[in-house]
UniProtKB/TrEMBL annotation:
Descriptive protein name: ADAMTS-like protein 1
Domain PLAC: 422-458
Lineage: superkingdom: Eukaryota
Gene name in the database record: ADAMTSL1
Keyword Secreted belongs to the record: yes
GO biological process, one term: proteolysis
SUPFAM superfamilies: Immunoglobulin, TSP-1 type 1 repeat
Protein localization: Secreted
Amino acid sequence: MDFFFFLGVPEAEVTWFRNKIKLAPPHHPHEGSLLLTDVSSSDQGLYSCRAANLHGQLTESTQLLILDPPQVPTQLEDIRALLSATGPNLPSVLASPLGTQLVLNPGNSALIGCPIQGQPTPNITWFHGGQPVANATGLTYHILAEGQILQIANLSGGAQGGFSCLAQNEAGTFTQKTSLVIQDYWWSVDRWATCSASCGHRGVQQPRLRCLLNSTEVSPTHCAGKVRPAVQPIACNRRDCPSRWMVTSWSACTRSCGGGVQTRRVTCQKLKASGISTPVPNDMCIQLAKRPVDTQACNQQLCVEWAFSSWGQCNGPCIGPHLAVQHRQVFCQTRDGITLLSEQCSALPRPVSTQNCWSEACSVHWRVSLWTLCTATCGNYGFQSRRVECVHVRTNKAVPEHLCSWGPRPANWQRCNITPCENIECRDTTRYCEKVKQLKLCQLSQYKSRCCGTCGKA
């Protein structure tokens, strides 16, 4: 590339500058012109030449622009770092000339990067389905990082499909593309369910519904909003069965204990595909399986029972008027009279071993006498007593008290005349004061106050 400059008389000295920095002489080898070879982006800038002689100087400038058409950068680390910084937890994909793909769940957000370089910096326009994203319906988006990143929010069915970024500058255009695929939940009918029977007329295969997400089975709750396919049972294995032994239920045991016998019917039969079972010779079943037994022992346990002795005398403790307790022995034995542990009769209801009975000795009650006179007419120390005894109802004679223990024993003493002494004169308030004086108890305050008259005498 040549830059020419016309010189004056006398011949002017020419000096070249790029971005106001003086260039070395080899850049302008002849007649003041500047020759640039193998031009690259590093040569871009503002070029100035200054011509000077005795009569003055003149400076002219020109701008050199290096055009570089849009293209994919050789290193993609910068755009990947930009995607990571924009949405650290968001799925992302880089568009490319051949196209890329990103599979997403419904409701996700995603970032699409457009890696591009060129000179001057290309302008980037985003398209969805062949039209600018600004005209796309049902699409929530943001254009970030000077057009290098397209953010799609809340992905739905309308957001999936092809996206492309068109980069253009004065040197040309360049298109890269990608597609977003929204994986959805859907019902799948599993036709390989196990048949309910291997032969006969009742075999059915119930197709199983599975909820899938990207060919992976998930919880059926995710497919709740999807139309559930109608499935019908499918007949399967409707063919004649091999001959086999058929048995009835066991009969009741001939004995309830001590060893009995029960029987059942055993026949060789063949079940047809029509559902009809027909008897066939036993030889046809013996070849396939051993004949089941038709007799077996049952109820081998011993025949046991509860046995008991006669009731004992009615001489236990009295539990009420005329009532006492009597006892008997209860034990487990065989029907042959052999005594066993009680546990071996535990399945049978156990008879009682005690009961109430009428007893003449328990015809008793508590008898009380009248209260004695109170020991004081006032104060806090008066008390009175009475006689309490257990007596027979018929003879009215005293008997041991334990025979009346079934009822509460009445009190045989109580406090009385618990009132303040209003008269302040010194007098005795109990009839035992002479004894108090004889026993020399007057020095104790409780006796001195109650026997004030007697204890005050010399």
